[in-house]
Amino acid sequence: MTADAASAPVEGAPAAGPVKGDGPAAGRGGPRARTTTGYLRYVAGKLAGAAVSLFAVLVTSFFLFRLIPGDPVKFMTGGRQVSAEQLDAYRREFGLDLPMWQQFTDYCGKALTGDLGTSYQFRAPVIDKITEALPNTLLLTGTAFVLYTALGVLLGTRAAWRNGRLGDRFHTGLALVLYSVPSFWLGLLLIVTLSVGVGPVPGLFPTGGMESGGEEGFAYVLDVAHHLVLPVLTLVAVEYGQTLLVTRSALLDEMGSDYLTTARAKGLRDDLVRRRHAVPNALLPTVTLVFINLGRTVAGVILVETVFSWPGLGGLFYQALSVPDLPLVQGLFFVFAAAVILMNTLADLIYPLLDPRVGR
After folding, report:
1. Most exposed of 21, 117, 206, 215 (fewest Cβ within 10 Å)?
2. How far apart are alpha carbons 134 and 131 in whole angstroms?
3. Whole-number Å distance between alpha carbons of 222 and 234
4. For the segment 254-274, what is each residue's pLDDT rounded down to a tens digit?
């Protein structure tokens, strides 16, 4: 048989061509494409879950606060004697005379456009009151968030790396005690000791508020910072323990891993092994906690802001709840919950970037 005959195609056989899976073309539909598709499916699932949670919060915020005793219409009259016709006029003005199902559909429809209603006590749009108080809350809880996150991660890392030693036992015990302390009680204790003064110890800080008034320029900044010390100290003392304990626990789980033993066997210093290898792989639980706390930063801390008379979202929520100012309470509750849901969803979306095994 000649070479030409051997190379000729057999009659009835399919024409020769590239084998499936060979060559560069196959790479375009290979593992990388499957990974991208899996991540997009993972993202879509998380976003859909967040949308369902937000709608559930919207429904809950409407019906839950209507169980609060009290008539907001009577509050709007300021205790004055008014006729039944005037009370009916107030109810018609705020839509309280409509059936419950119609109030709910109107509320949901307006909320989707960013209209959270009109406050009963302030006679102003709820979104305007939230926007007005939001910067004050961000200043307070944002400052505390940065401090207690840095402090918790640093001390949690050091405590885990020196597991069982005196420093580890001290920091863990202190974190457990402070994390168990109610924030409002600690705030009141700080006011008594550091604001009012005890015995020969004079009061060093204001008892509440955000400013003394009458200050301008740099003096105003110093005045606000002076008022900021005690509420920030309260939040840091209560919250840093949670970050410390989570970081310590995650790092302890990593310390028995083989790759850390190998790194030490190669002669790497303990500090280098901790910073470059152990800590990055133990960050996932801490990342979740950090983002949840970041959502709470937007929500504010109601009890602390109330104790220190801080003019933020938490104080506004307490003030609205005592009326009850239903549109303002509903709007604030939705903002609080939405902040936590969105930050938690963002943490879920960042997970695959830190650990490619997540979302496959």
Report:
1. 21
2. 5
3. 19
4. 776 777 777 777 777 767 777
